[in-house]
Amino acid sequence: MVERRPPDSGFRRCLPRFVSGVVAVNARVVSAVVPPSIPAGPRGVPSNDRRALPVAQLAPEARPTVPYGMAAIDRDGRLAEAVVIPALGWRSGTRVDVRVRGGLVLVTADPHAVFRVTRPGQVRLPATVRHWCGLTAGSRLLLVADPAGGRLVVHPPAAVHAMITAFQAAALDGEAA
């Protein structure tokens, strides 16, 4: 009986054959890929006659000197932010005055004010201020701390939009973004 084998595709040639504990490999030897060496210059240091590639200059990292952040207002008008409000040093029970000026909400520490910082360190904006500024639950606000002035400046979305529009117009020489 003649045993039929599939035609040899070359794959079987790479498999080792075991003959009495000796492994024989029928494969082509592949030479190693080694980059050419750079000839040594004076003092045995490799010389590099090639020009260095240009490196892009990065803008210096801007380090804000004023703490700022974003916060969403909840359905009861509370703002919570982990960096900005604590930067003012306000603790739970600190009395704060809340006013609207120029489209911004100014919150300042005032021992005679009616409103207080809540136990978890939240600031509550009264309903009249929220309605005046068009704030609803989930509105994202830009909070900027002014530790030297002892105040928190709250930028409603309309104020942020106006600020960005003016900045881009100035930066783009009047072109609309």
Radius of gyration: 35 Å
Q: Overall 3D geometry?
A: elongated
Number of E-type strands: 10
- Class from helix and strand fractions: alpha+beta
Q: What kind of sheet is the major sheet?
A: 6 strands, antiparallel
Assembly type: single chain
Strand content: 15-25%
Low-pLDDT stretches are: none
Number of helices: 4
Notable traits:
177 residues; alpha+beta
Overall description:
The chain is α+β, with helices and mostly antiparallel strands. It is built from four helices and ten strands; from the N terminus they run H-E-E-E-E-H-E-E-E-E-H-E-E-H. It has a six-stranded antiparallel β-sheet with strand order 3-9-10-6-5-7. It has a two-stranded antiparallel sheet with strand order 1-2. A two-stranded antiparallel sheet has the order 4-8. The radius of gyration is 35 Å and the shape is elongated. The model has no long low-confidence stretch (mean pLDDT 82).
